[in-house]
Amino acid sequence: MEQPVALSTQDAHINRLLENRALPVEKVAEMVGFYTATSFRQHFRQRYQVSPRAWRKTFGEVEG
Prior knowledge:
Elements: H1 9-19, H2 25-31, H3 37-48, H4 52-59
């Protein structure tokens, strides 16, 4: 899975937050202005054709 080439500042911020596996998706959703994690997940999937969890699995920082 390739990351989109041209990202808005907000997209880049969301992606960096998701790549930090220490933050639950619910917290990321709250930090970027979504009222619910469900609405964030729907928006993210619509935008990237992948779930936040799958994005994190592919691009997230390795814990340890």
